[in-house]
Design brief:
7-stranded mixed beta sheet; 2 domains; alpha/beta; Rossmann fold; 14 strands
Length: 318
C-alpha cells in the first residue's frame, strides 16, 4: 500500500503497462510535459518521445492516429485534455473505433483507451465543465469507465488497457489532487461496482466525484438512524446490474445521483431497469438542463451537493 494522488495512481498504472508491453503508447497535447493535471508526469523522460508522443492541436487527428495505431497492433492511450474537446473528434470514436470490430467481423480490434476528463471545473464555464458519460453509454462498441478514487484510477486504467476494445475513460477534473491508499496488486474487473456501505433503507447509486458527495450524505443520514446502501458504479458500460438490482430488491427504493444533466442522463437507464426488474420506487438527481455558468453563483446552480442528496433521500423515505 502507498498513499498517492488520483493523478499519481494513473501514472503508476501507465508505468506498469508500458514497462510490461512496448506496444503501449501515449499520444496527445502536452503529454510530454506531464499533461495539464500531471497524469503523465515523468513518462516521456522514462520511455522516450517515441512512446509518449506530443501531438498538434487537432483532436480529430489525435483520435484518428490512435485508431490507426490500435488497428496496427499498438495499444494507444489517447489524451483529450477535457471531454469537451473530444467533440472535435467524435467521428473517429463513433464511426471508426466503436464499429470496426463489428463491421469487419472481428478481423480488426481497436484496443484504445481515450482519456476524457469530465465534470465541473471551478470557474471554467460552459465549454470546459461537461459530463457526457450517457452519450458514450448510448454508443454500441465502447466501454465507459468513471473511476472515483486513486485505487480505482490505478486498477481500472490497467483493466481498460487489457480489455482489447475501445474504452472511453472519464476522470473527473477535480479528483486529480485527492489522495488515497493504492495497492498495486489489486485488480478490478470492468463492469464490477463497489458497494461502499451496506444498508437496508435505501439504495443510492452514483459514480465519479458524486460517489464521494453521496458518501457525505450517507454519513449524515446514518446519524439519524437511516442506513443507506451506497454503490459506486465505477463502470458505466457495462454496468453492474446484478449488484444494483439485488440491492434494490432488498431496500425497495433507489436514488441515482450524477453530476451530468438529469434529462436523458444515465441515471434514467438505471432507474428504468430497476423499476422494471424489481418494482422498487425510483428517483433521479442530476443537474438542471442549463449550461454551467462562469460566475460562482451561476455555477452553483449546476452542482449537486450533499445537502441535495440528503433532501432527495429523505423525500423518498417519507
Amino acid at each position: 500500500m502507498a498513499m498517492m494522488t488520483y493523478a499519481q495512481a494513473a501514472v503508476l498504472a501507465l508505468q506498469h503497462e508500458m514497462s510490461a508491453d512496448t506496444n503501449v503508447v501515449v499520444l496527445g497535447e502536452d503529454v510530454g510535459r506531464g499533461g495539464i493535471f500531471g497524469q503523465y508526469k515523468g513518462l516521456q523522460q522514462e520511455f522516450g518521445a517515441q512512446r509518449v508522443i506530443d501531438t498538434p492541436i487537432s483532436e480529430a487527428a489525435i483520435l484518428g492516429a490512435g485508431v490507426g495505431m490500435a488497428l496496427a497492433g499498438l495499444r494507444p492511450v489517447v489524451e483529450m485534455r477535457v471531454v469537451d474537446f473530444a467533440l472535435c473528434g467524435m467521428d473517429e470514436i463513433v464511426n471508426q473505433a466503436a464499429k470496426n470490430r463489428f463491421m469487419f467481423g472481428g478481423q480488426g480490434r481497436v484496443p484504445m483507451v481515450v482519456r476524457m476528463p469530465i465534470g465541473i471545473w471551478d470557474a471554467s464555464a460552459a465549454q470546459h465543465t461537461q459530463s457526457f458519460e450517457s452519450w458514450f453509454a448510448h454508443l454500441p462498441g465502447v466501454v465507459v469507465v468513471c473511476p472515483a478514487t486513486p485505487q480505482d484510477n490505478y486498477s481500472l486504467l490497467r483493466a481498460a488497457l487489457a480489455s482489447g476494445d475501445p474504452v472511453v475513460y472519464m476522470e473527473h477534473k477535480t479528483l486529480w489532487g485527492i489522495s488515497g491508499e493504492v495497492d498495486p496488486s489489486q485488480t478490478v474487473d470492468l463492469g464490477q461496482a463497489a458497494v461502499l456501505r451496506r444498508g437496508q433503507h435505501l439504495t443510492l447509486v452514483s459514480w465519479s466525484k458524486q460517489a464521494g458527495v453521496c458518501a457525505q450524505a450517507c454519513e449524515r443520514l446514518a446519524a439519524d438512524g437511516i442506513e443507506v446502501e451506497l454503490i459506486d458504479l465505477r463502470t458505466i458500460w457495462p454496468w453492474d446490474r446484478d449488484t444494483v438490482l439485488a440491492s434494490c430488491a432488498r431496500t425497495g427504493r433507489l436514488l441515482v445521483v450524477h453530476e451530468a444533466v438529469q434529462a436523458a442522463g444515465f441515471g434514467a437507464e438505471i432507474a428504468a431497469t430497476a423499476a422494471e426488474a424489481t418494482g422498487c420506487k425510483v428517483k433521479r438527481l442530476g443537474a438542471p438542463r442549463i449550461p454551467v455558468g462562469y460566475a460562482p453563483v451561476l455555477e452553483a446552480q449546476s452542482r449537486i451537493g450533499p445537502e441535495d442528496v440528503l433532501a432527495a433521500a429523505l423525500a423518498m423515505l417519507k
